[in-house]
């Protein structure tokens, strides 16, 4: 993996920051990695292929960038800090001149990114600013469908929420929305001492693989609207929590039953596929709510009796939904 001498160590990071007049700021979530072994581990865990085009958000002084460049076809580094964006090509040219041609620096906010120059990106590998980690990942997955894999370093608690499964207290909006795009898993812890300045929290790696979204006739935006509404009042039953979304509690119950979901369940019990089904029957939904309701009424509350604790689908409503999706 690359030339060891090219990677930045603690003294290199501090010297470079001093020369540039850079002081890490909490506003931009800047905590620079100063441990070469950590960046090697990140790249190794990301399993990059020689043909990959990698997006790196928040490259900072270049610690991870220098480790990525020898392993991939191209690195597109998105940096919001103008000083750091300007200095990164110089750092790469000085420490790994033979790889300088593989680097493309995009100065700007990753949350406003609509595309990148050159070949389509295939992977995201980044030490993400803690304060925008989840929004950045979701935005890039939505904006860049060519992204197939990701490995990101985030705050440990955020990592737990990103990979959480239905049924737990930490399962919520980030968990469901990320699951829409694919499968996420924890890929190891990262200690505080590898950063400068050292954060007050631990970090963790999250690996992601894109998969097809769940079957639904609703748009992603419509599904996410249901998710947002369900978790805005997560202690309430879905009948109550989705009342505003549906127009009334009664309409919310009708949509839930049509989708084969127990109205007494709470949002934390549902997986992304269930939210995708519900969205089909909401305001402006694409499926016939009255027809689906006829199928659900035959089973009544008994359709939910076995699985009311985890929000599983009622058999009658589910069968009606499946028939319409075929």
TrEMBL record:
Its EC number is 2.1.1.182. Residues 293-326 are annotated as: Disordered. S-adenosyl-L-methionine binds at residues 31, 33, 58, 79, 109, 127. PROSITE patterns: RRNA_A_DIMETH, SAM_RNA_A_N6_MT. It is found in: Cytoplasm. Signal peptide: none annotated. Pfam families: RrnaAD (PF00398). The keyword rRNA processing applies. It comes from the Bacteria. Keywords: Cytoplasm, Methyltransferase, RNA-binding, rRNA processing, S-adenosyl-L-methionine, Transferase. Residues 38-212 form the Ribosomal RNA adenine methylase transferase N-terminal domain. It catalyses: adenosine(1518)/adenosine(1519) in 16S rRNA + 4 S-adenosyl-L-methionine = N(6)-dimethyladenosine(1518)/N(6)-dimethyladenosine(1519) in 16S rRNA + 4 S-adenosyl-L-homocysteine + 4 H(+). One of its GO terms (molecular function) is 16S rRNA (adenine(1518)-N(6)/adenine(1519)-N(6))-dimethyltransferase activity. HAMAP family: 16SrRNA_methyltr_A. Specifically dimethylates two adjacent adenosines (A1518 and A1519) in the loop of a conserved hairpin near the 3'-end of 16S rRNA in the 30S particle. May play a critical role in biogenesis of 30S subunits. Belongs to the class I-like SAM-binding methyltransferase superfamily. rRNA adenine N(6)-methyltransferase family. RsmA subfamily. NCBIfam families: ksgA. This is Ribosomal RNA small subunit methyltransferase A. It comes from Actinomadura rugatobispora. The gene is rsmA.
């Amino acid at each position: 993996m690359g030339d060891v001498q090219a990677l930045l160590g603690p003294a290199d990071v501090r010297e470079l920051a001093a020369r540039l007049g850079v002081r890490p700021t909490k506003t931009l979530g800047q905590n620079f990695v100063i441990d070469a072994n950590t960046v090697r581990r990140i790249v190794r865990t990301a399993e990059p292929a020689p043909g990959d085009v990698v997006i790196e958000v928040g490259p900072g002084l270049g610690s991870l960038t220098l480790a990525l460049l020898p392993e991939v076809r191209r690195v597109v580094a998105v940096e919001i800090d103008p000083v750091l964006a300007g200095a990164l090509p110089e750092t790469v040219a000085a420490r790994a001149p033979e790889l300088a041609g593989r680097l493309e620096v995009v100065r700007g906010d990753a949350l406003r990114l609509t595309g990148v120059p050159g070949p389509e990106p295939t992977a995201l590998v980044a030490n993400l600013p803690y304060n925008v980690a989840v929004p950045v990942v979701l935005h890039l997955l939505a904006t860049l469908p060519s992204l197939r894999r990701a490995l990101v370093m985030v705050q440990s608690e955020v990592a737990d929420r990103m990979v959480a499964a239905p049924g737990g207290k930490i399962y919520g909006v980030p968990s469901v929305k990320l699951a829409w795009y694919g499968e996420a898993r924890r890929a190891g812890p990262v200690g505080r001492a590898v950063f400068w300045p050292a954060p007050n929290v631990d970090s963790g790696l999250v690996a992601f693989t894109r998969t097809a979204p769940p079957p639904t006739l609703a748009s992603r935006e419509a599904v996410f609207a249901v998710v947002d509404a369900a978790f805005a009042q997560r202690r309430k039953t879905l009948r109550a929590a989705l009342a505003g979304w549906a127009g009334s509690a009664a309409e919310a119950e009708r949509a839930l039953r049509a989708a084969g979901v127990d109205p007494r369940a709470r949002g934390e019990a549902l997986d992304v596929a269930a939210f995708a089904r519900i969205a089909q029957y909401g305001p402006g939904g694409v499926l016939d709510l009255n027809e689906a309701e006829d199928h659900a009424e035959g089973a009544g509350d008994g359709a939910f009796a076995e699985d009311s604790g985890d929000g599983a689908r009622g058999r009658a409503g589910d069968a009606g939904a499946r028939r319409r999706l075929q």
